Amino acid sequence: MSDVETLDRPPPIGRHGRVSAEEQREFARAKQMLPGGALGGNALAEDVKFVFKRGEGGRFWDVSGNCYIDYVLGSGALVLGHAHPAVQAAVADQAMRGTHFFAYLNEPAVQYAERLMPHFRCAERIRFTTSGSESTFHAMRLARAFTGRSKVLKFEGAYHGNHDYAQLSTSPKRASNYPVGVPDTAGIPDVVKGLTLVAPFNDLEAARAIIAANKDELAAVIVEPIQRIISPQPGFLQGLRDATREHGVLLIMDEVVTGLRYGLGGAQAYFDVVPDLATYGKIIGGGLPVGAVAGRADILDQADPSTKANPGYVYQNGTLQGHPLGCAAGMATLSVLETPGFYDRLFAMADRLRAGLQQVFDRHDMGAVVFGEGPMWHFLFTDRAPVTYRDVLESDQKKLAAFDTELIRQGIFVLPGTRRFVAATHTEEDLAVTFEAFDRACRAFKA
User: Fold this and answer.
1) Which residues contact 186 (CB under 8 A, 6 or more apart)?
2) Which domains are present in the chain?
3) Fewest CB atoms less than 10 Å from the CB: which of 27, 210, 223, 446?
4) Separation between Cα atoms, residue 137 and residue 273, nearest integer Å
5) Neighbouring C-alpha atoms within 13 Å toward the C-beta of 104
6) pLDDT for position 312
7) Catalytic-residue membership of 31
8) How far apart are the C-alpha atoms of 52 and 70, rounded to whole Å?
9) 178 assigned to active site
10) Catalytic residue among 254, 276, 404, 430
C-alpha cells in the first residue's frame, strides 16, 4: 500500500509546515554526514526542504507524505516522469542478466548505440560516458587533441558541467569582461582559467570577433543550442557553424538538455545545424547515469584503444560507461519517444502550461513574463523574455527566489532560479492543480 493510499483521501499538494518526526531525523542524519546536509550543489530553504520518498508520473511524495507536482524531473532526465512502467520493466529484466561488466562491450550498450546513432545527425561514431559533465569534458579533450590547440570558447550563462574547464561564467553575479570569464567555484587553477574564453550568447558579431582573434589557439566553441532556457536568435547557431568552419575550429553542441527533448534528432534537427561533436546526458539514460559523445569519426577515433601507442591517442574511459542498466533504461525510454505523436503531445502540454501561468500572473499584476519553447519553461520578473544572460541578471532575482520558495511551499517543485521541464506523464489535472497553486502563491506573495 502506498503512502497516499493509507490516508482517507489524497493530501493536497504542498508542504504547508507538515514535517514528520521521521523526516526530521533524516535531516539530522544528513547534516551529520553530508556537507551542508546536501547531496550536491543545491539546497532548499529550511522551511521548504524535504527528503524524497517516492515518485510516480509527474508527482512525488516526501518522507512526511506531502505531495508535489514535479517540474524538476531529475534535472530534466525524466521525460517520462517517475517510475515509468516500461523503464521499470527494462531495468528489472537487465538486472536479472547482470548489472555491470566494466567498460567492455555489453549487449545493451551495442544495441543502444545502434538505435541512437541514426537520430543524431553528427554521429559517425558514439562513445558512452556516465554523465553530461563527463561528456563535455571528453569532447573538449578530443577537440584539443584533434586541433593541437588549447583554448575553448563558451558563452556567458551556459552550463557545461562540473569540471574546471566548464565552471567559468556559468552563473556569474557580475558580467564577464569578454573574453575573460568569472570563476564559479574556488579551486580552479589560474592556468586553467585562461584556457576558457567567454562570449555573450546571441551576439554573433562578438563571437565571430573572439573566434577570429584567437583562431590559432582555439580548439573549439561549445554552445548550448538553447542556453538554459534562452532561445537562440535566428541565424545565431548557423553563424557559429560558419565561423568555426572558416577558422578550422570545431563546434561542440552541448545537447545534454536538448538531446531527445526537442525531437528524436534533438537540437541538431530542430535548428538544422550540424556540429562536429555533440554531448549527451539526462534523457538518454532514462533516469540512470548514461551520457555520450557523438560526432565525426576522425575526431572520435582518436579514442580507439587499439591506438594507445600513437602520440595522438586520447584516453577516454570510465568504470561505469556503457552501463547495461542505464542502456536498457535508455532503450525503453527511446521506444516511448519513437511513438507517433509523442512530441506533438509533449509540446502542446508545455504550450498550455506557459499560457495558463501567464494568465495567472497577469490576473494578479505580478509583472512576470513566462517564456520558453518546446518542453521547457521559466518565468522572470521583468518586462520581456531574455535574449542574453545579462537580461537575466537585470531581472528581479530576489523576487524570483522568494516566489520560487513559495511555489515549493504550495507543492510546485522547481529548482529555484533556473528553467523547468514538462514530462510526458504530466496530466491535464496536474496543469489545473498547478494553476491553482500559482494562484495561491501569488496571493500569499502579495499578502
Assistant:
1) none
2) 1-70 (3.90.1150.10), 85-337 (3.40.640.10), 342-397 (no CATH)
3) 446
4) 22
5) 3
6) 94
7) no
8) 11
9) no
10) 254
Residue 3 has pLDDT above 70, yes or no: no
Residues 67, 411, 79, 346, CA torsion sign: positive
Dist CA 37 CA 44 (whole Å): 11
Contacts of 46 (CB under 8 A, 6+ apart): none
Backbone angles phi, psi at 296, to 5 degrees: -60, 145
Q: Are 11 and 53 in contact (CB under 8 A)?
A: no
**Taking the chain, what is the end-to-end CA distance rounded to the nearest angstrom?**
39
Radius of gyration of the chain (CA): 22
Whole-angstrom CA distances from 441 to 23, 48, 342, 371 are: 24, 14, 32, 19
Annotated catalytic residue 203: no
Position 116 confidence tier, pLDDT thresholds 50, 70, 90: very high
In this structure, the dihedral spanned by the alpha carbons of residues 384, 387, 389 and 395, taken in order and rounded to 10 degrees, is -10
Which of 68, 71, 112, 159 is flagged as catalytic? 159
CA distance linking residue 132 with residue 119, whole number of Å? 18
- Strands 151-155 and 218-223: what pairing? parallel
CB contact at 8 A, 362 and 316: no
Between β-strands 420-421 and 376-380, what pairing exists: parallel, antiparallel or unpaired? antiparallel
pLDDT in tens, 186-222: 999 998 889 999 999 999 999 999 999 999 999 999 9
The active-site residue out of 62, 151, 154, 282 is 282
Q: To which residue does cell 509533449 refer?
A: 346
